[in-house]
Design a protein that fits this description.
14 helices, 6-stranded mixed sheet, 15% strand, 388 residues, 6-stranded parallel sheet, alpha/beta
């Protein structure tokens, strides 16, 4: 099969590496720097498995900045471009996905378009009707930043937003490419598939928020959060995953997906969905207030990234903390190797770790690092289990 991947982010690169083992894959992106890196067999994102595939696996793929080259002769076009939540209109900004769909229909109307970007509920059906085509299939992506390819090689499940012979052929392509052969595959309508993605991520956000609020309670009452969480999680119905307190949920998916689902509930009675969105702001307020009460002169933010093994600081919870404490007149400095600028939202970026430690009265870290082992006394974190 000739397959084109549109977008060289986490989703796009994971799909490209997964499918290039058995198929002729073309990677298309508008970012020339990303394309150059891929051509040099360097992953444009921080993902160990993707880099391993690029460096050591016998995979064949091509890259292009050209839309015409990308779509010419393709049997399938997988769209993995970024979408974001538009807080003004209370809706996903799906412009990049829509543009890609229209380009494919113009340049190669026979290609089956597979949307793997996160989209609002009803998007696929809306596009089919407005563009008068049946050649669009939605397949939600479930992956973790830093483990994107691993989660495609060993997926927890595969949801196909269509129930047809074409859908079963698509499912076969992904199942055959994965290393997990007892994979659960569910065929549903596109709107149900879109709902599954948003409800899944909102549930995860709810779980993160639950343990964060447990931690807030324990901190206020001077209780041992770690012991409480361990005891709660001994119940097998609850389990011990996704239970490490943080400054709030963040990253590419959870903040925008929870807000989008809340927007979809505009005409549906709800309490919980709204609370999950609001809980994240409440947690950031609590963390910021706790830091302010310590009366530091200079607060050092150690890493903007959400978790160990990721290079993504998009919508990271610690940015919300920074804004809140800076509004109280406290100076903020940042140590973040991924930043290539000297200032981030008018906060000074310090590249030398030792200088950063010296200048900071209090160091704030969403996730602990060995780099801070020598200054533990002035580190504030809620990372109790040294993990993600």
């Amino acid at each position: 099969m000739k397959i084109t991947i549109v977008g060289a982010g986490y989703v796009g690169m994971a799909n490209a590496m997964l499918l290039s083992k058995d198929h002729q894959v073309t990677i298309h992106d508008v970012n020339s720097q990303k394309i150059r890196l891929i051509e040099d067999r360097i992953s444009p994102i921080n993902d160990t498995e993707i880099q391993n595939f690029l460096s050591n696996q016998d995979i064949k793929f091509s890259t292009t900045l050209s839309v015409k080259e990308a779509y010419h002769g393709a049997d399938f076009v997988i769209i993995a471009t970024p979408t974001d939540y538009d807080s003004v209109n209370n809706y996903f900004d799906t412009a990049s996905v829509e543009e890609a769909i229209k380009d494919v229909l113009t340049l190669n109307s026979k290609a089956v378009i597979v949307v793997r970007s996160t989209v609002p509920v009803g998007f696929t059906e809306k596009m089919k009707k407005s563009l008068n085509t049946e050649n669009i299939v939605f397949i939600p992506e479930f992956l973790r930043e830093g483990s994107a390819l691993y989660d495609n090689l060993y997926p927890s499940r595969l949801i196909i937003g269509e129930n047809s012979d074409r859908a079963r052929m698509l499912a076969g392509i992904f199942v055959d490419a994965s290393f997990k052969k007892d994979l659960d595959v569910l065929f549903v309508n596109s709107t149900e598939a879109e709902s599954i993605k948003l409800f899944s991520n909102t549930y995860l956000a709810m779980r993160v928020s639950f343990f964060n609020e447990l931690d807030s309670y324990a901190e206020v009452h001077n209780l041992d959060t770690r012991s409480i969480i361990k005891g709660v999680c001994l119940d097998p119905r609850i389990g011990d995953h996704y239970n490490n307190p943080s400054f709030g949920y963040g990253g590419y998916c959870l903040p925008k997906d929870t807000k989008q689902l809340k927007a979809n509930y505009a005409d549906v009675p709800n309490s919980l969905i709204t609370a999950i969105v609001e809980a994240n702001s409440t947690r950031k307020d609590f963390i910021a207030d706790t830091i302010v009460k310590m009366k530091p002169r200079v607060v050092g933010v150690h890493r903007l990234i959400m978790k160990t093994g990721s290079d993504n600081y998009k919508s990271s919870s610690i940015q919300g903390i920074m804004k809140r404490i800076k509004a109280k007149g406290i100076e903020v400095v940042i140590f973040e190797p991924e930043l290539k600028v000297n200032s981030f939202f008018n906060n000074r970026v310090i590249r030398d770790l030792e200088e950063f430690k010296k200048e900071s009265d209090l160091i704030v870290a969403n996730r602990l690092s060995e780099d801070l082992s020598d200054v533990k006394a002035k580190v504030y974190t809620r990372d109790l289990f040294n993990g993600n």
